[in-house]
Amino acid sequence: MGFQVFVAFSPWNLLLLLVALECSEASSDLNESTNSTTQHEPNVQFAAASSEPDENIPVFVLDYDYVQIPYEVTLWILLASLAKIGFHLYRRLPGLMPESCLLIIVGALVGAIIFGTDHKSPPVMDSSIYFLYLLPPIVLEGGYFMPTRPFFENIGSILWWAGLGALINAFGIGLSLYLICQIKAFGLSDVNLLQNLLFGSLISAVDPVAVLAVFEEARVNEPLYMMIFGEALLNDGISVVLYNILIAFTKMHKFEDIEPVDILAGCARFVIVGVGGVFFGIIFGFISAFITRFTQNISAIEPLIVFMFSYLSYLVAETLYLSGILAITACAVTMKKYVEENVSQTSYTTIKYFMKMLSSVSETLIFIFMGVSTVGKNHEWNWAFICFTLVLCQVWRAISVFALFYVSNQFRTFPFSIKDQCIIFYSGVRGAGSFSLAFLLPLSLFPRKKMFVTATLVVIYFTVFIQGITIGPLVRYLDVKKTNKKESINEELHIRLMDHLKAGIEDVCGQWSHYQVRDKFKKFDHRYLRKILIRKNLPKSSIVSLYKKLEMKQAIEMVETGILSSTAFSVPQLAQRIQGTKRLSPEDVESMRDLLTHNMYQVRQRTLSYNKYNLKPQTSEKQAKEILIRRQNTLRESMRKGHSLPWGEPAGAKNIRYLSFPYGNPQPASRHRRVAEFTDNDSSDSELPSIMFKEHSQRDLPKETQEIIPMKSLYRGRKPTNFRYQRNTSQEEHVGQGRRAALRPKPLFRAVDEEYESGEESAEEASAIGPGWPPEHRPSREHHKSHSPLLRRK
Amino acid sequence: MGSRSSHAALIPDEDSLRRETGFSQASLLRLYHRFRALDTNKKGYLSRMDLQQIGALAVNPLGDRIIDSFFPDGSLQVDFPDFVRVLAHFRPADDEDAGLRDPREPEPLNSRMNKLRFAFQLYDLDRDGKISRHEMLQVLRLMVGVQVTEEQLESIAERTVQEADEDGDGAVSFLEFAKEEEENGSGRQLVVSTTVCLKTQLPGRFLVMVISVWNYWKLLGIITTTAFIILL
């Protein structure tokens, strides 16, 4: 399989490899020549054109050593990126194997080159670089993209499984390996208990994120997904804490014996390190959320604040010997919710992409370094140790999964089935974390470090390649009902309808778990935290904040492109055939069904799809947009029909195409303008809509001013019906009477309200008329007004 | 626990409701809490607007239809018993044979037929007992993304009705609908986990357990922890 990958995108790779090869050859030549002439003087500059060094300025200078490290690192990352492009060009490949396979292959390739050219690779990884620069982005990304709600709904099981599971695995593997080492025949008797435990702790750091992509395709159930995600998130932290404590023990053991008190102290330390880390993370999360509250005028530094505070939480925790990983995770989780509402849309996007990018760079580097250290002479192959490690890893994972889930199932309303447990067992893929920890073992304390590294590499390769590739088929095989083929269009449609219905009813019923605890937190959150941390004049629920992110302009574009692209479709012919013959060939039915499968709305998922290596455009958001726009259309239609409002006269035909779906209804132009104008948060963006809508704005303005009086009276008199049409989008929590007023300003739907308000705007007495309308709302609209003078005066 | 029983007394006609819908006491209580949470200004009933406030429902393509199904015959409010009756459709169907049941009793709400009838209602807008081609088209419009053209949708609707229509009247009756569903068994799947059983709020109970244990051992625990810290 690996070979295929390589072949699939060899042209680019080859090119880049050549470059890399050239460079490394050149540099090794340089090194040789410098070595031979100058006797190991570091940083000797090689001046090609100067025979007398000090007199003339050299015309041509080649100084490779100066740029070597960043140069090669850049090349590696580029190579990995190109490989990824190739990987995704071939569409079926990502479904077959996790992306980490590819990175490892690329790494091995680079390693082979470096090895082949006798070139010493740059010291990208040592302990401080790894822990200070490479690890934090990876952890931060995991914490930031964690779906908060499902995580906290399953938090008991996740903590139980991720925390205790890692401990059981670490100690189980360590102790049983120690027993193996006692057998004289294997020649391992010099490996003592502590070293074994340490090895156990590092080998138990699983990285199952790689398999999440596979899960997504197979659509496994949400608790299972969250289990794996939570494990990926917390496992690293726990393993690293354990690792550090054991390292401390080993160091101490070198000089004196370990007493029982020390062991107890170690246990206490474990707890304190973990809890303290989380504590610091939460504090920093709140601080950064609080600071983003005031950044509306310099939104360019918003991403900076997010990143710097996360990193600061990591550093502070590390300074105090607490767990930086848990701190940065907790920080990301805490601030995410508030920061997302505070920052602007562009900063939000920037944060997301930058985070992905940083973590992907870190991981690429680690994997490449892993490849580099795979190829080489620094191995010690001990059959017994390696085989037993491999077997014990699987055995202990199986034991911990089945034992822990047996217990936690007693407490769960919806227990994990045996199938789920098998999948969790099988998803124990080791990754970059284990390797880094093994690689960073201090040689002075671990004389047989090479053997540990080799064993770790074998485990990683085995799990990533064999388990990673086979887990997809396994999931599909276990999940039998997904595999049987749909029979008819009816079925396709009905099943989807039932799914939507189920989801809808579930939403009506609300969430069941953590009901009271969560309710209490919600109350606290509403009463204190939000007031402190979030800017004023913001909608109060998370789904509303989703709408905030939806830009109407985009939506309009989307609708337009949707119409355009669909006209190019070839199925109208099909339709005619149906009319004519009334008999359908199986292929036609097939194509119809495909059409349905691909275009029907997905059932809402609370867990947004997560991919470690890529940010997909969120289809759910897009879908939400579509549905909302459509609903609004039908709403307006019914409104116009039902109540014959004064502005109900149809506008010019040229507007229709903006907001109308294929079966949309004509809209009065003024509303379009308002919608576009309002959602246009960025002043820089306001040009496009003004161009789009300027043709009718001219005509509409006078009409509006004439309508002031009727509108106002209408607004007052119609309050009940008005409310009926307010899709108040609060997230299914109870919304008190008082709060509803605050909830009223909501994007998208405000478009409806805006119409009622349009009179007030020119009369400038909004606060007197709309009692529920928060006054802070005013300035923002003034702001928009001022930014579209073109629109107004044209 | 004490508060639980006192809350339970608040539910009107609890016993008869339990018999009718088959919900357990705990489920009913939870639904009652939910009902009250949805009821924004404690009117004692839910209006359409209350349901429309559920965010996730707003982006559900069938959201309006689902809401409509709570308000039969154009009524404007739904009280708690009616609310529960609608939700009772989504309890898992009982396994017991039909023969064991008293034939005089009405069919339970969560039977397969009633589940199907509920789904059928979502299609059947004019309540004439038939899904016409036009009604099918409307459902398709709700559920299919904008990329599909009207012509395509029409042909699909045409085909869908054709597929299920046996007596050739150009519409799908409930019997035909049920028969169709019989084949693929999707009606049986119409079970919503949220309302199913709710043994208790287990994570919460777990917490309570931990806390009570903690209370007993608090003193000892604090002493040992401080001892550790001092040792460190």
UniProtKB/TrEMBL annotation, chain A:
Pfam families: Na_H_Exchanger, NEXCaM_BD
Record region (Disordered): 724-794
Subcellular location(s) per record: Apical cell membrane
Annotated signal peptide: 1-26
GO molecular function: potassium:proton antiporter activity; sodium:proton antiporter activity
Keyword terms: Antiport, Cell membrane, Ion transport, Membrane, Signal, Sodium, Sodium transport, Transmembrane, Transmembrane helix, Transport
Domain called Cation/H+ exchanger transmembrane: residue spans: 77-476
Keyword match Transmembrane helix: yes
Skewed-composition ranges (Basic residues): 780-794
Biological process terms in GO annotation: gastric acid secretion; glandular epithelial cell development; regulation of intracellular pH; sodium ion import across plasma membrane; transepithelial ammonium transport
Family: Belongs to the monovalent cation:proton antiporter 1 (CPA1) transporter (TC 2.A.36) family.
Protein name from the UniProt record: Sodium/hydrogen exchanger
